[in-house]
């Protein structure tokens, strides 16, 4: 079967045409070099597209075998999936990254971090464009080891669309352990927390929470938009304190909430975007030492939080702000961006920062630090270089300062129709 599929893809590449793309990035902070090169192939295939990509990367985090010979570069895969898009239906099946939500710089439920995983994603909008739904399964670990169980995730969204330029969406996700796929979360069209509680009933099918402790989250977003601007707000609720309403005199468990507020507007040749995001303390982290249900790809590691979070890149206990200004002139784009992030203590694998459950919500607690980044970039892009049969060529250079540490960078990409 695999050989037959390979032969069919080669046939489609040669006779139906494919697009080969190269993307390269380099950054130097006057102490270390970070670079990557990625190759992507897009092949028309029986009414769909097959997308595959991978390359080499040096991030000074992962140390590969023969690191001296390879100059600390390691091979990585990025994509390998089939994509079908029509006016009302989008389907992605295979291995890829995903991001969801209205944010341009920050995504609360799912965001792209450079790690790809098995995906089955279906998004549908009704012909009248009044409603849109999306269901996505992610296989985060396909096998179990002694200390790391198999795990998967399901994300779902229901959006109501209004002709006046308004979208209101309900979102939910669940991270589950000891199984790779859960058909109940993926197919049953009732809220995920209802499915989760169904298994904890005192019934023949009941399972104790000690045996089945899935981590579910709910939230939603609102988008107001016009042809020239877009304003949006999003919230993710990991846990919320209901005692403030039911029993205000009793113990008040901490709210675990992430949020996003943003605005983007353009008036040629200028485009302006600002986003503010953050999360209270303990959001996304595990609540029991022996249950690795924190909202990360790889639990129990020293991998940087910014690359390890499944959703919001900075995890818990922080606030972040990004402001970006772009000026377009013919094939040129000049941009200036500023980001400021303030962190408190962040311990995804250590419940309650190593202490007991606090009374009341906490935010920006513990050891406080910050990162401030100012960056300027100039890019040139052209659609065609017919002399070399090359399309969509982009070259850009950047320079900036990150907490008084300067850095420079260069990137380029191009495509070839085969």
Description of the structure:
This protein has 418 residues and is mainly β. It has six helices and 18 strands. It has an 18-stranded antiparallel β-barrel. It is globular and about 70 Å long.
The average pLDDT is 91
N-to-C order of helices and strands: HEEEHEEEEEEHHEEHEEHEEEEE
Sequence stretches where pLDDT stays below 50 over 5 or more residues: none
Distance between the termini: 26 Å
CA-based gyration radius: 23 Å
Class computed from helices, strands and strand pairing: mainly beta
> Any idea what the shape is?
globular
Number of helices: 6
Strand content: over 45%
Q: Based on DSSP secondary structure assignment, what is the total number of beta strands?
A: 18
List keywords for this structure.
globular; 18-stranded antiparallel β-barrel; 6 helices; 418 residues; 18 strands; mainly beta; 9% helix
Task: Report a brief summary of the structure.
This protein has 418 residues and is mainly beta. The chain has 6 helices and 18 strands.
Task: Give the SSE map.
Elements: H1 2-15, E1 19-28, E2 33-45, E3 48-58, H2 67-70, E4 74-85, E5 89-96, E6 117-125, E7 131-141, E8 151-162, E9 166-177, H3 183-187, H4 192-198, E10 215-225, E11 229-239, H5 243-246, E12 256-267, E13 270-279, H6 305-308, E14 318-329, E15 332-343, E16 369-385, E17 390-402, E18 405-417
Antiparallel strand pairs: 1-2, 1-18, 2-3, 3-4, 4-5, 5-6, 6-7, 7-8, 8-9, 9-10, 10-11, 11-12, 12-13, 13-14, 14-15, 15-16, 16-17, 17-18
């Amino acid at each position: 079967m695999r050989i037959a599929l390979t032969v069919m893809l080669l046939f489609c590449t040669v006779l139906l045409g494919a697009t080969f793309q190269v993307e390269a990035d380099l950054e130097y902070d006057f102490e270390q070099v970070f670079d990557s090169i990625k190759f992507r192939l897009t092949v028309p295939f029986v009414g769909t597209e097959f997308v595959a990509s991978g390359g080499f990367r040096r991030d000074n985090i992962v140390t590969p075998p023969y690191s001296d010979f390879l100059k600390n570069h390691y091979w990585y895969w990025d994509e390998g999936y089939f994509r079908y898009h029509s006016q009302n239906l989008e389907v992605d099946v295979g291995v890829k990254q995903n991001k969801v939500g209205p944010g341009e710089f920050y995504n609360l439920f799912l965001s792209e971090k450079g790690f790809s995983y098995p995906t089955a994603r279906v998004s549908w909008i009704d012909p009248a464009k009044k409603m849109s739904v999306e269901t996505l399964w992610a296989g985060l670990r396909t096998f179990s080891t002694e200390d790391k169980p198999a795990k998967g995730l399901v994300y779902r969204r229901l959006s109501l669309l209004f002709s006046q330029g308004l979208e209101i969406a309900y979102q939910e996700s669940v991270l589950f352990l000891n199984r790779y796929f859960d058909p109940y979360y993926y197919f049953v069209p009732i809220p995920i927390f209802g499915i989760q509680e169904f298994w904890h009933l005192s019934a023949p099918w009941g399972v104790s929470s000690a045996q089945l402790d899935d981590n579910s989250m709910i939230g939603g977003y609102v988008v107001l938009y016009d042809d020239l601007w877009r304003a949006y707000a999003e919230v993710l609720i990991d846990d919320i304190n209901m005692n403030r309403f039911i029993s205000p005199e009793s113990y008040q468990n901490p709210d675990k909430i992430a949020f996003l507020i943003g605005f983007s507007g353009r008036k040629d040749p200028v485009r302006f975007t600002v986003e503010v995001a953050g999360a209270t303390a303990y959001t996304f982290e595990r609540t029991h030492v022996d249950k690795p249900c924190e909202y990360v790809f790889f639990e129990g590691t020293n991998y940087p939080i910014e690359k390890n979070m499944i959703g919001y890149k900075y995890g818990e206990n922080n606030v972040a702000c990004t402001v970006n200004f772009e000026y377009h002139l013919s094939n040129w784009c000049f941009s200036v961006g500023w980001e400021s992030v303030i962190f408190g203590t962040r311990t995804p694998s250590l419940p309650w920062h190593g202490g007991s459950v606090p009374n009341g919500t906490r935010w920006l607690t513990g050891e406080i630090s910050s990162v401030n980044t100012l960056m300027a970039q100039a890019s040139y892009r052209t659609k065609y270089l017919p002399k070399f049969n090359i399309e969509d060529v982009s070259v850009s250079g950047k320079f900036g300062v990150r907490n008084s540490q300067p850095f420079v960078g260069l990137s380029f990409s191009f495509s070839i129709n085969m």
